[in-house]
Amino acid sequence: MKKDEKKEVIKAIYYKEVQDFLNFIKSYEKLEGEFTCSICKGKITAQNFKAAIRWSGKILFCCDKPECYKIFTETTRR
Amino acid sequence: MAFMDIVEFIFKYKVWGLVGLLVVAILWLFRILLDEDRSNIWRGRFYKVLYKLSKRREAEKKYIASDVAGCLNLARREMPFGKDLIPKSLKVEWIESSSGQNYVLKEGELVVKLDPAEEQEKNIINLARALIQRTSLIGVRYVLEKPLEDTIDLNLIKNLLSKIGNRTILDWYMKYEYTPKIEQDEKLKNWNSKIVAIDERGLFTRLLLVELDRYGVKIAGIPRSSEMETEIRGLIEFLYRIATKNYGENAPLDYITKNIKIGILIVGETSKILLSIDPYIKAFIHRLNKQVESIYVLSFSKDFLKERDEESEKVFEEMRTYLQKKIESDFKVEKDFELKYLCYDVKGRKREAKFVHYIPIYS
User: Fold this and answer.
1) Which residue in chain B has the smallest CA separation from A10?
2) Of A78, B41, B97, B152, which has the maximum CB count within 10 A?
3) pLDDT tens, A19-77?
């Protein structure tokens, strides 16, 4: 087995804990109004949340539509 | 060893048979414990059973995280990529939102919702995609045109998922992601046909990605230019011609631009190498004279010769080994890696290929 220097850590949210996560972000980041998907601009809820990333200081959200998630991960490639 | 063989073994050797089996079992367990990825797979299996029995949240989370990491990390180890491995190894960390341990996102950090244990295949595909897109093509993504970047990602994800060995996962990915994505874009389709041809000859992860990795290091901090785009496009065309060339057909074996300087030696013609290795040595010197920075020696076994001319096949293998020894003893080169793999030639015959990457040292 080859030894690796570093692992890629991906933070995961358990599907039953999404609401707590969104509530925390809302209060910590002092965000107002609804969260929207950065790709399709649809409303983000605990039911349709798929991913989030901090990008240039801002938090971007993505809904669970497969096409949105694909574009979201593509546009946030390093 | 089949179950009946084990029973027979125990009956034959009695107590010593049992002791022997116990030792083997302990060694097997140690092997798993020392290997983080294999332990993850077993941990995942354990928590899956626990979750099925108890339906507890903690068991489900531990199953999902261990199983995804174990599957993807073991699969990536099967992907040949020079000395290093791509993508990087994965670690899934839960954000424990329910217990009040809230987590502040750092710049560029991705948070993904993972689906229930019953939909684990989806979790594996989603994280495979995120892993490939975040940890491969580092340093060159900004140079690649989007359809090319996409097709490299798609094929890397396909390769990674195929190494998991779960047909359902691969089929789902091919049906719902890979094929539709390729079908909807002509440019992507065109690049994809080239990347697939290169991959079928074993030159995708072993050469193209190795060179793109080296390229990324070379152009670090330099703004994107049209020259860079042309260089990479040219590299792919160069490899595509080699991958699709017919027996006896000529294709350029050097690719020399400002930032990419590679030479390839293909040891294929039996009649040539059986006479002497000199033409290959001369070709190697020729590449060194051109100051190339990478030389790849690709040779194919001649197993099919065995049936009609066993002696020639034997001599071919000896000459192949002799050529490699001669290169390593006579020239100032660093052997970066040597990989063996199976592929199909243009006539559809299964061939064992040997691929050696040398980095010349110019003083």
Assistant:
1) B92
2) B152
3) 989 988 888 877 778 899 999 999 999 999 999 999 988 899 999 998 898 888 877 76
CB B297 within 8 A of CB B324: yes
Could you give the C-alpha distances from B171 to A70, B114, B175, B177, B322, in angstroms and in order?
18, 20, 6, 10, 44
Query: What domain range is A19 assigned to?
Result: 15-75
Look at residue A5 and tell me whether its pLDDT is greater than 60: no
Contacts of B35 in chain A (CB under 8 A): 1
Q: How many domains does chain A have?
A: 1
The SS3 call for residue A34 is coil
CATH code of the domain containing B257: 3.30.110.20
Within-domain flag for A20: yes
CA distance B104 to chain A (A): 8
Residues of A in contact with B77 (CB under 8 A): 1-2
In a domain, B157, yes or no: no
**Residue B16 pLDDT more than 70?**
yes
Q: What type of residue sits at position B253?
A: L
The boundaries of the domain holding residue B307 are 245-360
| Chain A residues close to B113, C-beta within 8 Å | 12-15, 18, 49-51, 64
Domains in chain B: how many in total? 2
**Which ipTM score applies to this complex?**
0.91
Q: Which of B111, B138, B150 sits opposite A51 (nearest CB)?
A: B111
Question: What mean pLDDT, rounded, does chain B reach?
Answer: 88
Residues in chain B closer than 8 A to A9 (CB atoms): 91-93
Distance CA A49, CA B113 (A): 7
Q: Is the pLDDT of residue B256 over 80?
A: yes
Does the beta-carbon distance from A11 to B103 stay under 8 Å? yes
What count of other Cβ atoms lies within 10 Å of the Cβ of residue B183?
A: 11
Residue showing tokens 């109004």: A33
